[in-house]
Write a structure and sequence with these properties.
The chain has 763 residues and is of the alpha+beta class. 35% of the residues lie in helices and 25% in strands. It has 6 domains: 124 residues, Rossmann fold; 167 residues, Orthogonal Bundle (Topoisomerase I, domain 2), CATH 1.10.460; 89 residues, Distorted Sandwich (Topoisomerase I, domain 3); 111 residues, Topoisomerase I, domain 4 (Orthogonal Bundle), CATH 1.10.290.10; 59 residues, no CATH class; 116 residues, no CATH class. Strand 4 and strand 5 form a beta hairpin. The longest helix is centred in the first third of the chain and has 28 residues. It is globular.
């Protein structure tokens, strides 16, 4: 029987470590965190130095019981991850298993290899309390913000919203970027490009300066038509391209998005598996340093496979002074392992990590750049022709990214050139780019907001909470003026170009904009970039032992809680951001666009009018609260529209609801996407209605006494009483089920979690 028990967080990690330890050790998993603040209630004693109350998570009670039983009579080693969260898990394990914190052995390693595990076992330490304090401070502060601020958003904006110190700042960044794009007015210039004949060779070139108007572009082309051209100057100079630094967490997330199309959460999930199986070093790090062992291993591989001229030793120092995870950069544990991973996605990510780490120790690529300045007679403007030749590939042999050679024909200074073609193309300046998951991580990192372990969950949360949608944008078309010199005459034509198309961009919802405006106005410190970054520095100070966590939380709460109390006086009407569009010419009632319980909407009439409630309508498709006009709003109040009648003389009306356009016949609603409720015909409506009836009839299996029904759903047959549903097991024929069996299935069905609902009678 083994005398030592090693506890890790992950079953996969346990399995890998067990391979490297002898029979004297058994390895068990805690399956992640085992204790936390209870989900319900604040559970932080504000009056007594912010003392938190932790509980063993309900789903971990069995795990803890088994670990307690196994730990009895064993020497316990805690081998959770080498960061603050891992340190906190180790501390919570001590509390739950009743182990002495100051005596229990703690081992850390940044890679799961035989040598790393053996070295860790040779030099155990105890839990670092300052790291635990830093993680505890983060948990307590985030609970205070979430617990006190989220209910304010429920009352003032919409039920079910959440706020967070990092997530709210991330949403603000996305909202402000979207507004920059919305307000952007593109500047128009004309790009002049030419092709010259250089002794029978084509020589493409561009005018160095852009021209600002169509008239000037046309005038310039006309002068060029009668001009002569010669090469004024030729400059050839060497250049280099250097490899990138080894991956940090954010660097890996950005490059995996760019090269592989992976989302941030997907990248971290794949990297976690690669780490737990011993293929890469720890993947939550903001360090760019490589160990001496890794440097030597990379050198040996490069020299052996490519030659000594491809090797250059580089030790990258971490630029960010706030970096606190200080393991190593992300790298393969064995450079000789060219491929790893349990599936194609893991393999691609491993290859990316392998290539980047190895390339960081390779020689720079050498290029030769040639520039030819071309001068037209009678004009001061100059054309530029550029060429580049890769002389030595260096790191590009491994990491790619090399550009194709651009060869210039033989040229000499003073050489005369013939003009083969010349055109000016209208160009529009571009607005700032919308954030992708990866570029948002980069921005958060630049601002010092969050840490490697927080990026993925933050981005996941803002999407789950419907503050942000990840979308592909189709873009729009616009006309572009092209002026071309043909037979010594300027010929004008118009071409269409698509602009604004993009993939996987983060787009704020209307609720994000309203929430951000509310927080900026009433809780400016919470969504202030500098404040949020400073909080991270405070956590670093706590981790270093330079500050007590309770002092930091106390100072924060002293400023934060009065803002909560002050916000109680804010009216929902003010938060709704109602904007007056104008008056209805028929009723003379004011028409507003405002934010309601389910999102942006139109309102006709005043809410305070006692004789009649206002009329409400949806926003027209493609508009926002800022862009919708009075004319567009008036049309929406023509809904619901009477379309006609069904074959059995029931009235058909068309409208737009929360989930899009629909028709209503009696109590039945039928989606009509992508048809328009303003133009759908009686025949189209009847066709959709009959198709709906046919589909519903196929779903219905049988009726039972007591209002019970047996139906066929997307996941198989089920029984329903109109309020609750229960799946019918495979061994029961749904056509033969009786009333008593149906009632038993409903009684034994798991209770569905209630969604957020507003209680009647409460405002």
């Amino acid at each position: 029987m083994s005398k030592n028990l090693v506890i890790v967080e992950s079953p996969a990690k346990a399995k890998t470590i067990e391979r490297y330890l002898g029979k004297e050790f058994s390895v068990k998993s805690s399956f992640g965190h085992i204790r936390d603040l209870p989900k319900k209630g604040l559970n932080i004693d504000i009056e007594h130095n912010f003392e938190p109350t932790y509980e063993i998570s309900p789903d971990k009670k069995k795990v803890v019981a088994e670990l307690r039983k196994t730990a009895a009579g064993h020497e316990v080693w805690l081998a959770t991850d080498e960061d603050r969260e891992g340190e906190a898990i180790a501390w919570h394990l001590c509390q739950a298993l009743k182990l002495p914190v100051d005596k229990t052995k703690r081992i850390v390693f940044h890679e799961i290899t035989k040598s790393a595990i053996e070295n860790a076992v040779k030099s155990p330490r105890t839990i670092y309390p300052h790291l635990v304090d830093a993680q505890q401070a983060r948990r307590v502060l985030d609970r205070l913000v979430g617990y006190e601020l989220s209910p304010v958003l429920w009352k003032k904006v919409r039920t079910g919203l959440s706020a967070g110190r990092v997530q709210s700042v991330a949403v603000r960044l996305i909202v402000e970027r979207e507004r920059e794009i919305r307000d952007f007015k593109p500047a128009v210039t004309y790009k002049i490009s030419a092709i010259f004949d250089a002794d029978g060779h084509n020589l493409p070139a561009e005018l160095i300066d852009k021209i600002t108007s169509e008239d000037k572009a046309e005038s310039f082309i006309e002068v060029c038509s009668a001009a002569t051209f010669k090469i004024q100057e030729i400059v050839t100079k060497p250049g280099t391209r250097n490899p990138g630094v080894p991956f940090t967490t954010s660097g890996l997330q950005q490059e995996a998005a760019r090269r592989l199309g992976y989302g941030v959460s997907q990248t971290m999930r794949l990297a976690q598996r690669l780490y737990e199986n011993g293929y890469i070093t720890y993947m939550r790090t903001d360090s760019t340093i490589l160990s001496d062992l890794a440097l030597e291993s990379a050198k040996n591989y490069i020299v052996k496979e490519f030659g000594a001229n491809y090797y250059t030793r580089r030790q990258y120092q971490t630029k960010d002074a706030r970096a606190q995870e200080a393991h190593e950069a992300i790298r393969p544990t064995d450079f000789n392992l060219l491929s790893a991973g349990e599936d194609n996605a893991e393999s691609k990510l491993y290859q990316l990590i392998w290539q980047r780490a190895l390339a960081s120790q390779m020689a720079s690529a050498s290029v030769e750049r040639t520039e030819a300045i071309i001068a037209p007679s009678k004009l001061s403007e100059r054309f530029l022709a550029k060429g580049e030749i890769l002389k030595f590939d260096g790191f590009i042999k491994v990491y790619g990214g090399g550009k194709d050679d651009v060869l210039l024909p033989p040229l000499k200074q003073g050489q005369k050139l013939d003009l083969s073609s010349l055109l000016a193309r209208q160009a529009f300046s571009r607005p700032p780019a919308r954030y992708s998951e990866a570029s948002l991580v980069k921005k958060l990192e630049e601002l010092g907001i969050g840490r490697p372990s927080t990026y993925a969950p933050t981005i996941s949360t803002i999407q789950k909470r419907e503050y942000v949608e990840k979308k592909d944008l189709e873009g729009e078309e616009r006309p572009v003026i092209v002026l071309e010199l043909i037979d010594n005459e300027v010929v004008k034509r118009t071409e269409n170009e698509r602009y604004g198309a993009d993939k996987s961009k983060l787009i704020p919802t209307a609720v994000a904009e309203v929430t951000t405006d509310f927080l900026v106005k009433y809780f400016s410190s919470i969504v202030d970039f500098d404040f949020t970054a400073k909080v991270e520095e405070e956590f670093d100070n706590i981790a270093a032992g330079d500050r007590r966590w309770q002092e930091m939380i106390s100072k924060f709460y002293k400023d934060f809680h009065p803002l909560i109390e002050k916000s109680e006086s804010v009216s929902r009407q003010e938060t709704s951001q109602a904007r007056l569009l104008g008056k209805d010419p028929k009723s003379s009632k004011p028409i507003y666009v405002r934010f309601g319980r389910y999102g942006p909407m139109l309102q006709r009439g005043e809410a305070e009018e006692s004789e009649k409630k206002p009329d409400f309508g949806p926003l027209p498709e493609g508009t926002t609260m800022d862009s919708v006009t009075l004319d567009q709003a008036l049309k929406m109040f023509e809904l619901p529209r009477k379309v006609g009648k069904t074959k059995d003389s029931q009235e058909i009306t068309a409208n737009i609801g929360r989930f899009g356009p629909y028709i209503q016949i009696g109590k039945k609603f039928v989606s009509i996407k992508p048809l328009d409720p303003f133009t759908i015909s009686e025949k189209e409506s009847n066709d959709l209605y009959e198709a709906k009836l046919k589909k519903d009839a196929q779903k219905h299996i049988k009726d039972l006494p007591g209002g019970l029904k047996v139906q066929l759903g997307p996941y198989g047959p089920y029984v329903t009483d109109g309020k609750s549903n229960a799946s019918i097991p495979d061994d029961i024929d749904p056509k033969k089920i009786d009333e008593s069996t149906a009632k038993k299935l409903l009684a034994e069905a798991p209770v569905r979690k209630a969604r957020f609902r507003r209680k009647k009678g409460k405002k």
